[in-house]
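Suppose you are handed only these lines of text.
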Amino acid sequence: MQTKRTEDYIPKAAVIRKITVENSQVKTFEMAFADEESNRSFHYLPGQFMMVSVPHHGEAPISFSSTPTRPGTIELSVRRAGALTAFMHTMEEGEQIGLRGPYGKPFPMATLEGRHLLFIAGGIGLAPLRSVINYCLDREAAFPRLTLLYGSRLPSDIAFHADLGPWRNHPRISCFLTVDAAEPGWDGAVGLVTALLNHTDIDPAATTALVCGPPMMIDATLKELSGRGFSDDNILTTMERHMKCGIGVCRHCHMDSKLVCVDGPVFSRAQLLQLDVAEVQS
Amino acid sequence: MAGGHNPVNPRTGAIRQRFMHKLNYDVTQYGRPSCVGCGRCVGICFGGVDIVRFIGMAGED
Ligand SMILES: Cc1cc2nc3c(=O)[nH]c(=O)nc-3n(C[C@H](O)[C@H](O)[C@H](O)COP(=O)(O)OP(=O)(O)OC[C@H]3O[C@@H](n4cnc5c(N)ncnc54)[C@H](O)[C@@H]3O)c2cc1C
Ligand code: SF4
Ligand code: FES
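From them, the structure of the protein bound to iron/sulfur cluster can be written out as follows.
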């Protein structure tokens, strides 16, 4: 029988160092553990998540939006969705918060080396992909070519401006943005994020797609990529479930025979098609 | 989830997960089922969910 160590389940105190307002719904929290030794011994990879908690306000899984190639602090980008996240949006720099983790299977960074990476993000889905993109940009030799397709509801919902600026001028990444509905002053694309695929030249055999976003977008995007000749092993996505333990004990995050907290949150389309998953239909 | 959608069909998905978890997934994960067939949950269940009858039916074929 598998045993779990209790220390994996105990939150550690972390201090919020800096808060960045990304849009009306999302804030990025830069934090570090209160105890220096915990910061030194902390290791994670893009795609993993932390269980974030505030006493009396709840606990929720939040993905890393920072890259481990820039150690010292971690960043979590949080959309206001319910009890915990609404409270987090009222917190200020210097306040303490509980963190445990890292949990979950990361994106398979080692096997992605050398491939053209196609990032497709909808809304807050750019948070975990931001971690991967900055990781790849910091490891120049391993990741020669990146493409980002990013869809937002409105131009004012576009987040991560501090990253999008440098990415737009970076020779190794091409960025394409679109919105569901234009606002005055927007002269960019309007429409589904999948329509941006027509603007890019992509060789499906040399490319792996990483897709993060709301359930509706994931199903449509995975189908579209498959139709364009991507093999199901080269389409990666992340699944979202409510979680309690985060360590494979409570089964709250069940997805057919898998548990999103330990078997995911990163899955390939090939894996998902073997399961009965509400969000992904063949 | 953040958008409030429920990925588990409340009529079929929940009961499927309960039975499969106790009788199948836990065998894979822990090497044994997590239901001994004692029937206590059958006596207490308002909805008449009967895992013991289910085990019997599954055993017939
Ligand atoms: C692996 C993973 C990574 C994630 N990464 C991020 C991230 O980087 N950034 C981010 O912003 N979010 C992320 N999320 C989503 C985040 O965990 C959820 O939005 C979480 O629910 C927020 O917690 P909360 O307490 O603020 O909201 P909650 O109070 O849990 O409410 C969130 C929503 O769930 C509904 N809800 C709550 N409880 C129930 C219930 N019992 N039954 C039905 N509906 C219910 C609420 O009505 C509301 O719509 C991630 C989720 C996962 C699984
Ligand atoms: S029959 Fe007994 S062991 Fe099986 S689920 Fe019901 S209460 Fe648990
Ligand atoms: S959250 Fe408890 S098993 Fe996944």
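What can we learn from it? The two ends of chain B are 38 Å apart (CA to CA). Chain B is about 55% helix and 0% strand.
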